[in-house]
Every structure is written in C-alpha cells, then in structure tokens.
Amino acid sequence: MTYQTQIKKLLEIAIEKGASDLHISCGHPPILRITRTLIDMEGERIISPRDSQGLALALMNPLQREKFLKEKEIDFAYDFEGKARFRVNIFFQSQKISIALRLIPSEIKTIEELNLPPVLHKFAQAQQGFVLITGASSQGKSTTLASLIDEINHQRREHIITIEDPIEFVFKDDKSIIDQREVYRDTLSFARALRSTLREDPDVIMVGEMRDLETIATAITAAETGHLVFATLHTNSASQTIHRAIDVFPPHQQNQIRAQLAGSLLGVVSQRLVPRKKGGFVPACEVMITTPGISNLIRENKIHEIPSIIETSGEIGMIPLNKSLVEWVKKGEITRETALRYSLNPDDLKARLEKV
Predict the structure, then answer these.
(1) Are residues 55 and 173 in the same domain?
(2) Per 3-state DSSP, what percentage of the chain is helix, strand, and coil (rounded to 5)?
C-alpha cells in the first residue's frame, strides 16, 4: 500500500468514526480523539519513522515540503477529496516526524444547531463594532465565528474579508462577497493583512487570531472606523479578555486603548465545550454585551466590576458562565460534577445548583 493510499484510508476512518483529531506518531498505531478520549485505531500497525515521514510527505505539496524541512514544522489546511477538510500540523520530535490532524466539519452550522445562546444573533446583525469570541484551545471558537459570518452571508449584502491561519471553514458566497486570506499563503502576517484590509473596502472583517499588539491595535481601529470586526483570543472570561487586550500595550498607551475599546467593543462571548451525558459536547457560554455602564467601567479601569454587571443584566441577554452551566444541568444534558469541573467559580455554582 502506498503512503498516499494509506493516508486516504486513515482519513476515511477518522471521518467515519466521528473523530475530532487524528494523531500519527512513531511507536504508536494511528490514534483517534473521540469525545476528548484518545483511542488506538484498531487493526493498524505501529507507525515507524519511515511511515511517519512517508505519510507526512503524502499530505504536503512540494512548496509545503520545502517550508517544512526548512522550518521543522508546518501548519496548513488539507482538502480531502471534497469530503472534509483537515487542519494539519506536522512537526519534528526527537528527530522523527509526527502529525496532528483536526477534522473541520464541511457544513457550517447555525447558532441554533450549535446550541449557542440566541442573543449571539445580535452580533451578526450589527453594522459596526468589535466582537470577541474567546476560550481555550479546542473550545469551538472557530466554529462560532464561522456561524456568525455565514449568518451575515445569508442575510445581507456585505464585503467580508477573513484572515486565517490556516483557512478552516470554506464559505460559499450567498448575498455577500467573501474573500478568505490565509496567512503565509496569501499574506505574510495577520497584522500586515489587517492593515491592507482597511484599503480593500470591507464591511465585515474576521481575524482568526489576535497574536500581537499591532494586530489588536489595527482591529480596534477598524472597528472604530465603521467596520464590523470579529476576532478571537485565548482567554476564559469577558473581564480577562479586556485585561489581555489592554495589557499587551505599553503603560503610556493603555488609557488610550481603554477609551478606544470602551467606544468600539460590542461584546465578548467566552465559551467552553462541556461533555454531555450521552456523548458529544454542549457549549457553556459567558456573554457580555457592552452597555454604557460597561463602557464606563472599561474607561475607568474598573474591569473587576464587570462580572457583577453581567450577573444582573439577564434581561438584555447577558449570561454568566455559571448560569449557562446550571441551564445545561437542568436540561439533563450534563452532570452536576461535570458542571463543577468546568466552572471558574465552583462555590458560586454549588449555591446555584442547590436551588435546582
């Protein structure tokens, strides 16, 4: 069996089994991650250094091979015969090659299909401002972003530009024009692409990841100057997100950034995927919608008071994370123990659960 045929077989098994990830590492058989559990692929032989090299080369085109051998690692999207897309990372470890493949669903699901709070529709309906989708790695941020962008695509005529590394979900133009730019393939960096985007007549901009000061500063400026900007950060709550966005700047600039954020931030969605009793996951979300009161707290550097505003503003759609977890417990989707494990404030959650 050629390595091209073997990688095709492994990808087909990953799709058939509903795996989120496929790992190829020397000394192990191919390994699937299904509902966060690593499972050896049955009937497959142990991967040798020669196997891992052959499988890696079968996934890459000549330019990617050259880049990988030069930089010792590479991240790219792989379209598997139109059946599915995978985000691929190939890297060296102990002078051997390992491969991690993340399955990207071919269908972009709606907010309802993803079990996300309906209030997120407000962000897709906005014309201008800054929306941050946050959470740790592998918590569904890209999927939520794709849902919001696709909702705009189906509802109104806009020019949407995405900047991603790599491109994960592929959008099909409906009412909107969508230009998807991949870092290192279509542009040299997030910051460079974002600066250029401001000269490309966009209405909506999606930044796959804000990695540095320049990208954050340009994203805030874009939101201030009449664009609707969506971006992600690896943070766990709205208040932590605002701190992170401000703290990346030197002290003498932070007051200015607070003022800019206070005027442009529409909201923050912090999400984590929580295992269901019956398998799969449900999203537990903290949702902050920027009100005049929250804008003042940002401007006055009283960010620590934001959680209490979120707690008391349910009538306008704000959701504390613990309230989201309690709702999933009440619906019978997750256990109390699971909810407590995923809470950022377990003592508060215990008190809430006692009332259920």
Answers:
(1) no
(2) 40, 25, 35
Q: Are 324 and 284 in contact (CB under 8 A)?
A: yes
Closest-CA residue to 288 (of 259, 323, 336): 323
Domain that holds residue 54: 3-104
Residues 296, 151 share a domain: yes
Of 56, 72, 104, the position where a domain reaches its end is 104
- Please list the ranges in the chain whose pLDDT falls under 50: none
Verify that 197 and 128 share a domain, yes or no: yes
Which residues have CB under 8 Å from 63's CB, separation 6+?
none
pLDDT given for residue 3 in this prediction: 95
* Residue 78, domain member (yes or no): yes
8 Å CB contact between 190 and 207: yes
Residue with the two structure tokens 């809470």: 343
pTM of the model: 0.90
The CATH number that applies at residue 167 is 3.40.50.300
Report H helices in the chain.
Answer: 3-16, 49-59, 62-71, 121-125, 141-155, 190-197, 213-224, 238-247, 251-264, 292-299, 306-311, 321-330, 336-342, 346-354
Domain annotation covers residue 337: no
Query: What CA–CA distance (Å, rounded) separates 36 from 302?
Result: 37
- In the chain, the number of structural domains is 2
* Cβ within 8 Å of residue 113, ≥6 positions away: none
Q: What string of DSSP letters covers 6-62?
A: HHHHHHHHHHHTT-SEEEE-TTS--EEEETTEEEEPTTPPPPPHHHHHHHHHHH--H
Is 44 found in the same domain as 155? no
pLDDT value at residue 25:
97
The Cα–Cα gap between 166 and 79 comes to 12
Dihedral angle sign, alpha carbons of residues 343, 345, 347, 352: negative
Q: What is the pLDDT of residue 129?
A: 98
Residue 105 confidence (pLDDT) = 82
